Every structure is written in C-alpha cells, then in structure tokens.
Amino acid sequence: MRTSVPMAAQLGPILALICTVSTLISTVDAKRKLKEQEIIQRILNNYDWRVRPRGLNASWPDTGGPVLVTVNIYLRSISKIDDVNMEYSAQFTFREEWVDARLAYGRFEDESTEVPPFVVLATSENADQSQQIWMPDTFFQNEKEARRHLIDKPNVLIRIHKDGSILYSVRLSLVLSCPMSLEFYPLDRQNCLIDLASYAYTTQDIKYEWKAQNPVQQKDGLRQSLPSFELQDIVTKYCTSKTNTGEYSCLRTQMVLRREFSYYLLQLYIPSFMLVIVSWVSFWLDKDSVPARVTLGVTTLLTMTTQESQRLIVFRCCLSSGINAKLPPVSYTKAIDVWIGVCLAFIFGALLEFALVNYAARKDMSGQRMMKQLPQDGYRPLAGSQPRTSFCCRIFVRRYKERSKRIDVVSRLVFPIGYACFNVLYWAVYLICARVKLLLRREYSYYLIQLYIPCIMLVVVSWVSFWLDKDAVPARVSLGVTTLLTMTTQASGINSKLPPVSYIKLPMRKTYPMLTEGFREYGGQP
After folding, report:
1. Cα-based distances in Å from 137 to 61, 156, 221
2. What are the transmembrane regions (predicted)?
3. Which overall architecture, per CATH, does domain 67-258 show?
4. Cα separation of 353 and 348, whole Å?
5. Does residue 379 sit in helix, strand or coil?
C-alpha cells in the first residue's frame, strides 16, 4: 500500500534551495555596489576637478594637446517658432564624451578583483556646487533662455568607464534665436541653428567634434509635430570662430524648416483673389448705377487697405485673421506684400475705371444734347472726314456707340488678362526661382508700402467725387466720409508705434488737407 507524503515535506527542499540562491544573489549584488562605492572614492581621492585633463595627442608632450570632446544631440521637440521675435523653443538631450585618464579605474582590476564596465556618478539638484569631476564649459551661443529638468530627479547622467572615458548627458529646454529672412514669406524656408562652443577654453585646450554616427538623432514623430513648418533636413557643421581672446571651437546644427503653405492659401490668397474678382463685377453693372458701383469699389478697396493697430497691412473683413500681424516690421518687401499690393492696385484700378466711365457717360450725354440742338438743314459730314480705322475697330465702335460702354467692355478683357499674367509671373518667381532677390532701400521701402502708397490712394479715391454727378449726394458724401475716417484710423495705427511728440509729422500733415478739400469743393457747389 502506497504511503502518502505530506505537502510540507515535499516543498521543504525546494524552499530551502530558493532561499539559498536568493541569499547568494543578494550577497553578490552587495559586493558589486560596495565595489562601485570603493571605485568612486579611490578615483576621486586627490582629484582636482579644476584642472583640465591631458589630451591624447602625443605630439604635445607637455599637455597632450586639446581635450577632444565628442558631441551628440537627441532632438525631442521643436515648438513655438516665433516669427515676430525670431526665436524658437527646442528640447533635446545633450551628450558629451571625453577622456580623463585620471579617472581610469581599470588598473584596480586583477585576478581576484573584478570591476564593472562603468560607474555612475550621482548628481544633486545644484550641480554647480557639487561638481566632482572636470567638465567642458559648453554654452549655446544663440541661446536666450535655458533650463534643466529636475522632476523627479535631475535629468543628468555622468557615466565613467574603466578606461577613463566619460559620458555626460543632460536634458535641456532652450529658447534659441533664429534670424529669419522673410523676403519669400509665406513661401519661405528658414535655417534655424543650434551653436555650441566653449566659453573659456580655446582650441588649444578643447576641440569639439561631432559623433561619427548619428550626430543628431530625432525622436519619432518630430517632423510631424510642427504645426506651421515642415522639418526638411538637419545638417551638422563646424563654426570655429576667432575673437579678441582667442580661437574657439564651435559646432553648429542647422535645421531647414519649410513653412506650410496650405494655411496661407486658404486664409490669404484665395480670399484676396476673390476680392479682386468681386471688384470686376462693377464692369457689368449699368453706368447709371452710381451708388452700387461706388459702394462695391470702395468696399473692396478698404477691405484690402484698412490697417490694424500697430501691425502691417491686413484684411479687416474677409481676411480678419491678420496674416501679417504675426510678422515683425521689416524694411524689405515680402512676397505677401507684392501679392497684396498688386491685388490692391487692381481693385483701385476698377474704382478709377468707374470714375472714367461716369465722366465719359456725362460727356456722351452732353454731346447728344448738342446734336439735338443743331438745326436740321440736311447737313451731312463729308466721307473724307471719317478717321481711318481698322475693320475691327469700326465694328467695335458701331456696336458700342457710347464711349462709357466701350470702356467697360475693354476693362472686362484687360483686367482679367493682366491679373492672369501677374499670377503666372508671381508663382514662377516665388516658387520656381525662389532665389531671386529684390534690391531695395532698407530704410524706406517699409514706410512706402505701409504708409505713403495707402495715403496716396486714399487721396486719389477722394477725388472720384469730382467726377460724380452733383445730384449723387449719398455716393459723394459716403465716399468723402469713408476716406476721411479711413485716414484717421490709419493715422492712429501708425502713430501708436511712436512716442507722443509736440510737432506734426510730414505725411499726415500733407494728407489731411487734401481729403478735407474734397468736402469743401462739394460743399461750395450751388
């Protein structure tokens, strides 16, 4: 008969074996930790962190040459690309590697003693006051603001290998300057840099170089994380520079950023294109529809020219998002300025075309009245008195006998063809020949576009009242009041950027009398 063995008796040897193995593992682990503590104490004994280690160049018998510092960057995020302040924010892990023979502990290893491949040197939150080993005094040349990450512990790693090579890794968040060239905005590409160098040590003491493989690594999804830019390429360069205090080794990371165009296509180009097309509706309206044609022309023109306070030309109605309000005031002409300026010119031309049509219509009516007053004595003009014109012109004149109608018909063809030619030239220059630059006077062009041209257009628009019929009271009054109020709004926007002074500045002093003269001329009519 089989004798049953108790469960406790069966598990007893197994539990004893597990306890023995656990005890051995904990003992080995305790010895390893003790060995790390001993290594750190021994290598830091009589170590002076203020003295630079010797280089590895045998041709320099005294100092060993400069310390070779190998750099690697792991980009985590790029954000807040600010066009106004010309800066951007970046978070990355910054790694440096160099050799300090004084910290090599491979000599402690023998047959009876085993050392780990590396030891980790702990750091405190205030690393400057607890520095234990020599480290390169690296700084970022184009840095505006910087901070280290201390949650939950300082994000710093100092790893010392047994051959004396040191790995220093730290996570940083920086705000870096990025000078931008906005000639091709919003079809532009920007090169944002990360420049690093030694602050005190010259090239005779420290020499930086990029890591041979993957000097700049990117976090997965980094290229898709930028809302308004596309990260096209990352290039590593050297930027060693000379100053009055010596020559300093420098490394440069150049990030090529291309601005996303779809946003500006929807918010800027399509609405402005529509405004130009809407202004051409006036060519199909009857010449006697004075209020409708004046309202259409003035509304589209003011929509393009109204300025927002303290900013560039932006759209008040359809384009209220303020595209140019996100840019700094620069003295050169941007691609966006060319587009808005030409659209403004076409809308302005449509308004002037109506003034010419109105003037021609009144001349036609005056000529018809004179013809009716002539005596009907059977007079016929001589055949030779007719001007010699082409067959097409004669057909055109016979079909449209009124000069005002001819102007409208010609405008229906000339304006669209001219605008189409401009579009072909514009997109060819700024998309295909993106390197073409305009030579402009830096001090004057910004004010020419933002101040003088709008003021000239407002004054000329106020003169349209002189071609309107004296009985068109609503149209003439609306035109005068609108231009005067627009000029006042524009003046407040320009002057808001300037300090309060006791004298009158020239542009506004010359413009206001021109606008008020239009009111005086109309008010003086019987």
Report:
1. 24, 16, 32
2. 6-25, 261-285, 338-361, 409-432, 444-468
3. Distorted Sandwich (2.70)
4. 9
5. coil
First and final C-alpha spacing in the chain: 140
- Which pTM does this prediction carry? 0.64
Q: Which two tokens stand for residue 393?
A: 């012109």
Distance CA 23, CA 435 (A): 73
* Cα R_g (the chain), whole angstroms: 39
Beta-ladder partners of 237: 252
Topology of domain 263-366+396-523, per CATH? Answer: Methane Monooxygenase Hydroxylase; Chain G, domain 1 (1.20.58)
CA 92, CA 305: separation in Å to the nearest integer? 44
Residue pLDDT, tens place only, 27-73: 555 444 447 788 888 888 888 898 999 887 766 667 678 999 999 99
Burial class (CB in 10 A: 0-12, 13-18, 19+), 46: exposed
What are residue 193's phi and psi, to 5 degrees? Answer: -115, 155
Which of 43, 49, 40, 226 is closest to 127 using CA atoms?
49
Chain centre to alpha carbon of residue 38: 55
- Give the phi and the psi of residue 393 in degrees, each rounded to 5: -65, -40
Domain ranges of the chain: 67-258, 263-366+396-523
